[in-house]
Amino acid sequence: MIINKCIWIKNNRLCRLFILFSFILFTLPGFGQKNTCHLQGTVQDKESKEVLEFTTVSLKNDTIQLNTVSDKTGRFSFRNIKPGTYTLSLSFIGYLPLHRTISIHRDTTLSFHMQIDTITLQDIIVTASESRGLTSSSKINREAMNLLQPSSFTDILSLLPGGMTKDPSLGSVNKIRLREVGVSSSDYDVTSLGVSFLIDGIPLSTDANMQQIPGTYQGEYDYNRNSIGKGVDTRTLSTDFIQSVEIIRGIPSVEYGELTSGLVKITRKAGVHPWEIRLKADAGSKLVYAGKGLATRNGWTINFGIDYMDSKIDPRNNLETFKRLTGSVRIGRTWNILTWNLNTDYGSSFDNAKNDPELSYKKIDKYKSTYNRVALANSLYWNFTNNRLLKSLSLSAAIDYSKDQIKRTKYISLDKDTPIPDNTEEGEHDGIFLPYRYTAHLKVDGQPLNAYSKAMGELGFNISGVENAMKIGAEWRMNKNLGKGQVYDLTRPLYPSMKARPRPYDDIPAEHTLAFFIEDRITVPVGTHNFQAAGGVRTLIPLNIDKEYKINGKTYFDPRVNLLWKFPTTYLFNRILNIQLAGGIGWNTKMPVMTQLYPDTRYVDLTQLNYYHTNEEYRRLNMMTYKVDITNFKLEPARNRKWEVRFDFDYSQNNFSMTYFREKMTSGFRTSSFWRTFDYKKYDASALDPGSIQTPPDINTLPYSTDTVIYTFGQTTNGSMIIKEGIEYQYTSKRIESIRTKITINGAWFKSTYHNSHPVYRNESTLINGAQIKYVALYPDDDGYIKQQFNTNFAFDTYIRPLGLSFATFVQCLWISSQQSKWKSGTPLKYVGIDGIEHDFTADNLSDPVLQYLVKQYNKELFIKRTDPISISVHFKATKKFMRDKINLSLFVNNILDYNPDYKENNFSVRHYVTPYFGMELNLNL
């Protein structure tokens, strides 16, 4: 009966495809045909020994032709091969094709080392190369970064489809945005927070970052430097240690979590390489790097390096700077099937600003932010090449500790008597009056501690000719802040209107998450076609969460599926043509950061008596203080659903790729509002005679009346809706040998919709008879934007090998750039007064002498779509090699030419000014 069942499975193709999603862990292999052989092998770079993923491998003779691609470990496999003589061919972009004639009479394992093609190597240095795998991603190698001459990781993003070259901006947080136009509102920072960074397989966590100054506003030092809830500040990442970067924009494997927008996989330099020294200078910064890779006689490899950058935010201003220092030591060794790696890293940044003493009154305002991080990562990898079921096992663990400090000094000058509280408890109490002149000092002490561990096994087996590659694993993360938080003198606040009190960060519980994942990837030959699919599910379990939180005890599931259909290789006009279709759908989940789960308590201080006397001993200030907990116990992780369809073709070394994608997130993090009423007393001291009193007023003897106010407070909710839609494309030509030039054309059309998915409460500021209206209204619309962008980048890469000269010209065309605010009605849904009762807002309220002011009036021109005219800019980069590539001299000029016409907007003339930005660097390989 078993034999009949196997025959039925073999002949029923639908059943074979169904096996992808069955995820059978303990299925025994061995259903292959008799008298057949199994051929498997690995593909590596000949020099660096780096595995080559997605290498095209073909096996053919006079009767059959089989095709496959290598997996992430560089392995490929052919099963059920009849004994005989075959031609095995391997091809990979940037490498010399490799052909071998082999005789197969039994199960065979081979190893191949491919040689870099020094001519075609230059075919991939200008832009990111698009993946031909299951999901959309871009790979950027070392050669591309060398020509780009980056100062930080932000510069690399210009190589992505839809990316644009921008001058360095190191005076504020550099956020990463994938597949979107972007909006300046912090309510949509979840898109950058949802990009996960992996450095040599270890995630870079910012969830325990709590460095902020309370009460800051736009224009203040801390506002644009605050990276809480924004993800990784890419200014802190040096590119000099990087060997390659893969940026996954599509649906990643379920192996990766804690993300919504995408994944950045950074692989750093490994193996032997000479001393590398890099010196760079441009209009705003100076950079120096030195690094080396060496090997010992007993098989150990050691890589180390140090990088330092000094940037002036404005070259004309020496008072505002950003500095970065990073260092790394990486040790590794391989014993037979076991590979061990140990990485130690140090990173620091210094973000300083101070006012010109000649423009300050008596004192100097200062701002200094320091960041020091130490990390240790350890990984073990077993490669079981000859095991029929278990192919590999990996274990990794990492811990990192940061010492972050913000120091702020501010000279305060007041023009009136300003009362403030000096207590931390709720209730009635006496306050104090601030002096007219004082210096405020504040320190924010943060000490994030992050720990990580992961275990994963990879299985491989064959069922009736269907190759299965399965991943099973678990992952644990911990985030904790050991800092003392905001430390300052309550009687000398940085801002007289501060609504917070100091709170130690180490009082906040540690954040723990546990994740499990399982995925099966199958390869099915369908005649001369090749079908690949990967499907899996990842679970996220929050731990160490109080029972009051909605996420306590919940499990979140992220299913993801990717499919690829590769058509057989054909010949058109005697040239090779490859065509494939790919697509996928998946859900991605990101936990809230610690400041969103555990926000600071808000304080409401209401003045009940403010009796001012010329004699300080007779003054009295009495206040009523309320503590407001703004914690949102209903807060849940942000979830993003994304799907995409991609078409690729390669013809005679001309490559083209086009992807349509759509993403929808309705639970992004944002600050929403809620209301609360407060009662307090208003003491009447008008009857007191200032000339006869001998003591401060006694509130127990003063007459008073009661009053009630209503306020709104910000609270983190899942209220941001973000819809991203677009088309990405990239064309890479074969190098035109007559002019030694290669043409790359890439770009994207992005449409990004941002909206508040929850109604919001807002106070009404209208004054009637000198008093503010005591109503709060609930509005269906708060904000919303529709942004579109369509751009095309033309890159012309010329490489003259005899002269050791390479240069590239980039022409960037922004065809469409538009923005439109979404319609807002302005009519509230409900309103609430100081009685605390919500009422529906009806048509009758429009004629009410007070409630009519709750209706907002908007100018219709606010919602008109605004479109900027075409913008074109030209950038130039060049490198000259000396002494057999030991010395490289490079230069770049951004905006060497531009076309930005003036245009009219709301009867005003708009003019864009573009200034060239240039720099040079020297690279030594000793």
UniProtKB/TrEMBL annotation:
The TonB-dependent receptor plug domain, residue ranges: 135-260
Any coiled-coil regions, as ranges: none
Listed Pfam families: CarbopepD_reg_2, Plug
Gene3D superfamilies cross-referenced by the UniProt entry: Carboxypeptidase-like, regulatory domain (2.60.40.1120), TonB-dependent receptor, plug domain (2.170.130.10)
Keywords in alphabetical order: Receptor, Signal
UniProt superkingdom: Bacteria
Record keyword Nucleotide-binding present: no
InterPro entries: CarboxyPept-like_regulatory (IPR008969), Plug_dom (IPR012910), Plug_dom_sf (IPR037066), TonB-dep_rcpt-like (IPR039426)
Name of the featured protein: TonB-dependent receptor
Species of the source: Butyricimonas hominis
